[in-house]
Amino acid sequence: MFKGSMVAIITPFKGPQKEVDYETLEYLIEWHIQNGTNVIVACGTTGESPTLSFEEHTKVVDFVVKKVRGRIPVIAGTGTNSTQESIYLTNEAKKSKADAALVIAPYYNKPTQNGLIEHFTAISKETGGFPIIAYNVPSRTVINIEPKTLAEIVKRNPNVIGVKEASGNIKQCMDILEFVDKPDFLLISGDDGINLPILKIGGVGSISVTANLVPKDVSDMINSYLNGDVKRAEQLDRKLQILNRALFLETNPIPIKKAMEIAGIIKDGSLRLPLTELTPPNVEKLKEAMRAYGLIS
Fold first, then answer.
1. pLDDT score of 1
2. What is the pLDDT of residues 249-284, one digit of tens each?
3. Is residue 33 very low, low, confident or very high in pLDDT (cuts 50, 70, 90)?
4. How many domains is the chain built from?
5. Which of 12, 106, 176, 194 satisfies CB 3.0 to 4.6 Å to 21 for a cystine?
6. Which residues pair with 134 in a beta bridge?
7. Catalytic positions, please?
8. Is residue 117 part of a domain?
9. What is the pLDDT of residues 130-176, one digit of tens each?
10. Quick check: is 279 in a domain?
């Protein structure tokens, strides 16, 4: 169910109060489905989940599930640095009939590896075995989910079906596939720059930022590889690197929202504080990359 191009969809805002723009969100959902996106991930990092209230968070997930109407799977970002809050958001996603939860390693409070095991175990127990994809992104959380820790989490909690791996460490990804004793465990890339290398060692797809801007191209690259057309996947990946670099000139999702605005996909690329607008020099670098890619003239 969870493979291919999985877009970490933005949460569009509008107006001086930066309210959630549900009209634009609905448009983006349809656009992604038409352009071959295989899975939508709502309220992830790219969706600015840290700045959404619990009410907004649950409403966005519910909205996405209802508008998708079962045509493709929906994963809800539900992780926080509080185990109890993560349980609450995961149960809300379950009520909304999302297909799985994406649960990030707790940030800021820096748990031990044992603390990570207990965190995921508590969420699994209190949400009735709802499918969970762990999310490892040490650059944001400070703590790394070590491969042997992940193996223990999966051993204790069979409903932990995969990991979004964004450590940037290919050896760690290889260790995960070696240590996790679950044949159908899902290794998912969380770093667009190394989507293809992760596929080549056994990954099943990517939870992608770049797919917000060029959904068809990201889908074509990943699914070409999964369908055995390695040469086409390599050609598409080389071109996509132009965007993959530019979309991380500043903290995600600052560049992707600006790029979507420049490309005319959305009208308003505004963000909520503490994220701020892309700086003018980086706007020019972003435009240069988009021209090189052929997105704008």
1. 87
2. 999 999 999 999 999 999 999 999 999 999 999 999
3. very high
4. 1
5. 12
6. 103, 163
7. 135, 164
8. yes
9. 999 999 999 999 999 999 999 999 999 999 999 999 999 999 999 99
10. no
Establish if 267 belongs to a structural domain.
no
Instruction: Give the closest residue to 149 by CA, choosing from 184, 190, 106.
Output: 106
Burial code (b: 16+ CB inside 10 Å, e: under 16) for 224-257 equals: bbbeeeeeebeebbeebbbbbebbbbbebbbbbb
Question: Is the Cβ–Cβ distance between 142 and 110 less than 8 Å?
Answer: yes
Q: Cα separation of 87 and 67, whole Å?
A: 24
Structure tokens at 264: 């005319």
Q: Tell me: the pLDDT tens digits for 235-244? A: 999 999 999 9
The answer for residues whose C-beta is within 8 angstroms of residue 285's C-beta and 6 or more apart is: 246, 249
Q: Is 268 among the domain residues?
A: no
CATH number of the domain encompassing residue 217: 3.20.20.70
Pick from 248, 254, 294: nearest CA to 274: 254
Q: Which domain holds residue 179?
A: 4-229
